[in-house]
């Protein structure tokens, strides 16, 4: 019997996995455990009514970040983004369409990562006033105009990812980037 998601009426992920059948057996035992694993993060591009972008001052790093975070094991990136928005900001909303998938190369102790940026929509004055920062991770939040990204303590790669995300949101496109750069 097919189980259905009550919100969408579609078969559930568990049902999809069941109907896929038994997982493929390893031809060479142990090969799956030796395959590389990528980290995954998901963020939301949230704007105010003036078109400024929400950025967060994290307690755990010297630069500002987008709302979002690391996706947990076996968690859909879009759902992970929504979970992070609720945890960090008390904001309950389902992220919108995918704007950017950015591949971030290994850097120091940090392994390579795929970063998904979703459209987080627009917050009106009441929405902004209702934000509740997660004190253990965030010091401050502020909205920044895209032409002022250079005045905020952002990493160069995040600045590029933000610019690509704003462009994708405005053009109605989805972009694949490498460390925030188009093409390659």
UniProtKB/TrEMBL annotation:
Superkingdom of the source species: Bacteria
Biased segments, Acidic residues type: 13-22
Keywords for the protein's UniProt record, in alphabetical order: Hydrolase, Magnesium
Organism of this sequence: Kineosporia succinea
Cofactor (UniProt): Mg(2+)
Name of the protein in question: ADP-ribose pyrophosphatase YjhB (NUDIX family)
Entry keyword Mitochondrion: no
Domain spans labelled Nudix hydrolase: 36-168
Region (Disordered), start-end ranges: 1-22
Keyword Magnesium (UniProt): yes
PROSITE patterns linked: NUDIX, NUDIX_BOX
